[in-house]
Design goal:
6 strands, five-stranded mixed β-barrel, single chain, alpha+beta, 2 domains, about 210 residues, Archaeosine Trna-guanine Transglycosylase, Chain: A, domain 4, about 35% helix
């Protein structure tokens, strides 16, 4: 269960998923303050995605998606410039109920969004794993050519890691995060990958045409 209040770190192109690691370089003064406060406390920050049009009010409080993922700072290096290199490990999803204007950075009033994986859901993810792995090929635009899936990786962790690391648009990743549970995320991830494979194939030139 997450704290009722979380420091919020909104970014335009980053979506964090449970039990996935995320390296970040923190350079803005307000977020350096946020990291310093988190390190001296429970080391938890909430990652959220900025909504389109954020550029007009980035220095203020532009609109954000209400569903995010909390991360635990597992490593923090403070540089001589005052900046930080940190690593977050995704914890749990949360929903923002409101904000508290008490700091230079944003603080959200949140509720935890649980994603329990029961036997039936775990079995469904296990059944889909082979189909999912078959779709992870270098021909998918943006995929890493030497991408390997560790056989020992838990099925739920594989789904979340692929959702975070594959080259999807931020809004597509946000939609995956907002799925109601890991099995729904797995099925949506497969649909998204299959669509991208179809689009890529339709874009290939056909022999004999001019």
């Amino acid at each position: 269960m997450l704290p009722l209040k979380l420091p919020i770190f909104p970014l335009p192109d980053v979506v964090l998923f449970p039990n996935v690691f995320l390296p970040l370089h923190i350079f803005e003064p307000r977020y350096r303050e946020m990291v310093a406060d988190a390190i001296s406390g429970d080391r938890i920050v909430g990652m959220v995605l900025l909504k389109p049009g954020w550029e007009a009010d980035y220095e203020g409080r532009p609109p954000i998606y209400p569903i995010g993922c909390a991360g635990l700072i597992t490593h923090a290096e403070r540089l001589q410039t005052g900046r930080y290199n940190i690593i977050l490990r995704g914890l749990e999803k949360f929903r923002i109920l409101g904000e508290e204007p008490s700091h230079a950075y944003r603080v959200g009033i949140v509720e935890t969004v649980n994603e329990p994986v029961g036997d039936a859901e775990h079995g469904g993810i296990r059944d889909q794993r082979r189909r999912l792995e078959a779709l992870i090929v270098p021909s998918i635009e943006g995929a890493t050519a030497d991408l390997k899936v560790p056989p020992a990786m838990r099925d739920e962790d594989l789904v979340n890691a692929l959702a975070q690391h594959l080259a999807f648009e931020p809004v597509e990743k946000q939609a995956l995060l907002e799925c109601d549970g890991t099995l729904a995320r797995c099925n949506s991830l497969i649909d998204l990958l299959e669509m991208k494979v179809m689009v890529a194939r339709s874009a290939w030139p056909t022999r004999g045409t001019h």
